[in-house]
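Quick one - first record:
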Amino acid sequence: MTLDLDGASGARIGSAVAALRKARGMSAQKLSDRCAELGCPIPRSTIANIENGRKGDVPVREVITFAAALNVPVRDLVPALRGREYLGGFEAGVSAA
């Protein structure tokens, strides 16, 4: 399963990963190592391709792993989720009917 919520989400996710990684002083190799420690190996070359927008679709498991490795909520990596509040799996203020 991949996340493609707005047609350009892969590039935007990559930009977010790069910004957060750099803000933490973490190299792409260190992020790759941390992902492997979490049980989802993501090669440094794949990270570079995601960050540079060369990989359009980012699998959900990789997004979740990046969030865990960078210690941020998934919504910080997925532009379409930013600014939304979720309660019990449902978006607050939206009817489930």
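second record:
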Amino acid sequence: MDNVVVVGMGMIDTLGNSVSECFDNLISEQYKEPTSFETKHEHMQHLKAFYAQRTDLNHPDYIRKPLYNSLSYASKMALHAIEEATEHLDLDVKTTA
């Protein structure tokens, strides 16, 4: 088995688009649990599901705009979280990928 090293954190949640924003909103006195919905995915029907905020996400400079625009919103959210995680390290993805 290969070793895994966690090098940073990135997050998108109903509470915000960054780790610090989510934490700050969670401990805020104005915090209110978002409205849940039922998912049709059979393996997740027993879980609460919440819509993520549809806000501006970081568009990575190394991905051409036409390609980025063709991605699903879930893929854009994943890229946003990865960008945030690498920013914690000042890691340049272009030179290490």
